[in-house]
Amino acid sequence: MAADRCRRVVCLAFFLIFFCFPAFIGGNDDIDQQIFQPGIQGTLNVGVAKPRRYLLYDINPGEGFNLRRDVYMRVANLVKKLQDHGSWVLVLPPWGRLYHWKSSTEKQQTKIPWSAFFDLESLNRHIPVIEFEDYIKETGSAEMDEMWYLQSYKDGFFKTGKWEEKVDERDCNDPPVYHPDQSGHYRGWFWGYDEAYVLKFKCVSAQANAGLMVKPLTENTTARSVMINRAEVLLHDAYGQTDYWAARRSMRFSKELRFVGNEFRRKHLNSTDKDDKTIMWEDWRTFKPAVGTAKGGPYLAVHLRRGDFARSHSKNVPSLQGAAKQIRQIKKEQKLKKVYLATDATDQEVKELQKMVKGIVRFKPSKEELNRIKDGGIAIIDQWICSHARYFVGTALSTFSFRIHEERTILGFEPKTTYNRLCADNQSAEECEQPSAWPVVY
């Protein structure tokens, strides 16, 4: 018993020396003074965890699928910078009906989550992201604290020709499309969610890269949730550089859509990742193939824009006859028999093209598949299959073709098999400028 009491006394003495009187053992005085405040009897000051803050965004309703993907990258890298100032998460805007989504599933093309098209686990390896439905669950409602409705400066670059980065709260250039209800809640279009609203609305003039929004978001507001509308006004911070490519590489398509595309390649184009040398690693952060390692499947992929594009960009887009002539020539040069065609051409135009070019193959989903993957899924499958071809040729000025360029570059294809475009009729080689190659920056 005496020995036991002795051990207790010795332990207590050591405790007092090491924890209550650190100066006795030569501790760091600065740290000790921060931790042990006079009169607090050794109480540890622990900072209270800051609450999670939410950045939401939306884009002009008239913008297409692939421009929206580009705006995601700009906002994602804004959130990456915001991580240095607190716990920010990006709330992904649900997909709704877009101009090119004209299938019979119109009524189903609202409130579409990002997970229908993209791999959320992959996105989260770059920045924290959640669906709008998860935002509602986390916060308890579809309420948002503030909306910053972006607009250009009346006396900005397009009037003066002078570029100066700036962001200011200003009067609205045009009558707002969001209006307060009887409770003072601002309501309008929120991806089909009638219950959604914002508490505070203001117009913000912006002439800036996305990163310039960090200061006003961290210094000019304490709102827990801020929605940036018309986010396409913001530009990339460093186009084509490391963060740009990190955001782009994180945008992997959903596993279901990749599976559908891979099955089509296998069944109709004799193409598999193993044979084509296009196997991707699970984590995009460690997937860094050398240029030229990807071989591609034994087919030519063509993206041919028609419709309004053929009219508005007639100086850069060929006629059907002109496109057919070029496709036949490329097939011969590349010694390929099959052609995968991604196009918004009418069924009649496609039939005409198939008469002029042998071996054209297209992805045509069944009604059941269309209801499941929707028009956005078809666009992604088209891009996925084009991205795995031995050789690709696209349409000038098309963001659809541009996204395929990026996908093929990420996979490790040679630029000469990727950055190609169809020329307009009677356009000389000098006039038909080919797309610029943009290497991945890791």
Task: Please tally the β strands and state the result.
Answer: 13
Radius of gyration: 28 Å
**What is the residue-averaged pLDDT?**
89
Name the shape in a single word. Answer: globular
Q: What is the distance, rounded to the nearest whole angstrom, between the alpha carbons of the first and last residues?
A: 67 Å
Helix count, per DSSP?
15
H/E topology pattern? HHEHEHEHEHEEEEHEHHHEHHEHEHEH
List segments where confidence is low: pLDDT < 50 over at least 5 consecutive residues.
Answer: 1-48
Briefly characterize the structure:
The protein has 442 residues and is α/β, with parallel strands linked by helices. It is 36% helix and 15% strand. The strands form three sheets. Strands 3-2-1-9-4-8-5 form a seven-stranded mixed β-sheet, sandwiched between helices.
Plain-language structure description:
- With 442 residues, the protein is of the alpha/beta class.
- The chain is 36% helix and 15% strand.
- The protein is built from 15 helices and 13 strands.
- The strands form 3 sheets. It has a 7-stranded mixed β-sheet with strand order 3-2-1-9-4-8-5, with helices on both faces.
- It starts with a helix and ends in a 31-residue tail after the last helix.
- Mean pLDDT is 89; it is low at 1-48.
What layout of secondary structure does this protein have?
Layout: H1 2-20, H2 29-35, E1 53-57, H3 65-82, E2 88-92, H4 120-123, E3 129-131, H5 132-139, E4 143-151, H6 157-160, E5 166-169, E6 179-180, E7 186-187, E8 197-207, H7 214-219, E9 225-229, H8 242-250, H9 255-268, H10 273-276, E10 297-304, H11 307-312, H12 320-334, E11 338-343, H13 347-356, E12 360-361, H14 367-387, E13 389-393, H15 399-411
Helix pairs in contact: 3-8, 9-14, 12-13, 14-15
